[in-house]
Design brief:
The chain has 194 residues and is an alpha+beta fold. The chain has two domains: 149 residues, 3-Layer(aba) Sandwich (NADH Oxidase); 42 residues, Single Sheet (putative fmn-dependent nitroreductase like fold). The chain is 26% helix and 21% strand. The chain contains five helices and seven strands, in the order H-H-E-H-E-H-E-H-E-E-E-E. The chain has a four-stranded antiparallel β-sheet. Strands 5-7-6 form a three-stranded mixed β-sheet, with no helix packed on it. The longest helix is centred in the middle third of the chain and has 17 residues. The model has no long low-confidence stretch (mean pLDDT 91).
Length: 194
């Protein structure tokens, strides 16, 4: 599948199958992240994979899934691994955000290629997670990516009403704005009048 087709197909997953992700696939995701561009090639990012069942549970208790996720409370539907994107503040204290975004993008596209679903999370209890995983204080957890094989059907829909929703069959609809409402060509135009 081409990269573009992977992008068109990729959606955030919050309900997962009770199926473990191989260490080989997880390491492949980190290798993809490692190869992402880095400002001034400082490479301040490091990655922590958590796939141990007990440690996964500790993380789960310190994260907040958005949206309609009542089924995530069932243990078998929870993520089967997490990747924490860590910033080494001894290397770079600020200006690392683009590095994180590019690395996260590489992780999720590699996961998609391997059939693994992802949920990128920033609503996490960094203090407790850092303590539980013994992360030194000079590292900052920027993002956490929850991983697993999807158990839900997710479809994309175009609309200006951007709230996602589930239909009566449980299908999750992720709403994206139409391209003609966000694209400007050569000059800025007021897209609200389109």
């Amino acid at each position: 599948m081409t990269v573009y087709k992977n992008i068109l197909k990729r959606r955030t997953v919050r309900i997962f199958q009770n199926k473990i992700i191989s260490k080989k696939i997880l390491k492949k995701m980190i290798n993809a992240a490692r190869l992402a561009p880095s400002a001034r090639n400082l490479q301040p990012l490091e990655y922590l994979i958590v796939d141990d069942e007990n440690k996964r549970e500790e993380i789960f208790q310190n994260i907040s899934f958005g949206g309609d996720v009542e089924k995530i409370q069932e243990k078998e539907n929870r993520p089967k691994a997490y990747i924490l994107i860590l910033v080494n503040k001894k290397v770079r204290e600020k200006g690392f955000e683009h590095d994180v975004g590019l690395a996260a993008g590489n992780i999720i596209l590699t996961a998609q290629e391997e059939g693994v679903g992802c949920c990128i999370m920033g609503a996490i209890n960094r203090k407790k997670i850092s303590k539980n995983l013994k992360i030194p204080s000079y590292y900052f957890i920027d993002l956490l990516i929850a991983l697993g094989y999807s158990k839900e059907e997710i479809k994309m829909k175009e609309s200006e009403k951007i709230s996602y929703y589930r239909n009566e069959k449980g299908v999750l609809f992720v709403v994206k704005r139409k391209i003609d409402k966000i694209l400007h060509w050569n000059n800025f135009k007021d897209v609200s009048k389109r």
